[in-house]
Amino acid sequence: xxxxxxxxxxxxxxxxxxxxxxxxxxxxxxxxxxxxxxxxxxxxxxxxxxxxxxxxxxxxxxxxxxxxxxxxxxxxxxxxxxxxxxxxxxxxxxxxxxxxxxxxxxxxxxxxxxxxxxxxxxxxxxxxxxxxxxxxxxxxxxxxxxxxxxxxxxxxxxxxxxxxxxxxxxxxxxxxxxxxxxxxxxxxxxxxxxxxxxxxxxxxxxxxxxxxxxxxxxxxxxxxxxxxxxxxxxxxxxxxxxxxxxxxxxxxxxxxxxxxxxxxxxxxxxxxxxxxxxxxxx
Length: 282
Description:
alpha/beta
């Protein structure tokens, strides 16, 4: 073996007796810290976010070193996939006469809380049938402020999510509710709830997912990190998993590069205007 590898026998025995190097010992320490972060993220974080978490904890290292250690240990972040729309019930475009104007125009930013909310509906496969999920997100902090789940895709599904957001956030008059042209969002029921709360409806162009790209991205995250990694026997099981993911992990723990690698809750706690302090940001 030594002849084939062009090394001396003495060198081989010296290598066998040599203790671990400082570099190897440091790799072992980092691997332990990375394992804790990776496990706490439910196996979702890749090297960039793990590196940021180490940086926040005061651990000095490099992103490339983190990526190498994760690769050596078989740790990989979650990647997004594509899903087909289920057959049967589907979001129907509202008649053009009922459409609201586009008040967002692909500007996916806000200067403060409760200025612009994005809304959408997605679907989750279970062995019992489809479960539909309606979600509202405050684009300022990327926080999910309202959600609702049902076995049917009805106007009540979207309305329940909006009512949760209103009860939680108590938005000032003029808050924008942006969605696609689904009939659920053009319903009389949702329109009445928005008028009573002083919320302005907004809709992007028909068949243009880019007009609601911020919400499409959030739905992709929920699907990749919570839904696609599991098989649900029943709607109740899926609803429980989604609830726990949104309220306990996404809003409170999951970091976002757009927020300076803070979670929505951390971002709101640090940036909510003092003169308009809300209990959710305290």
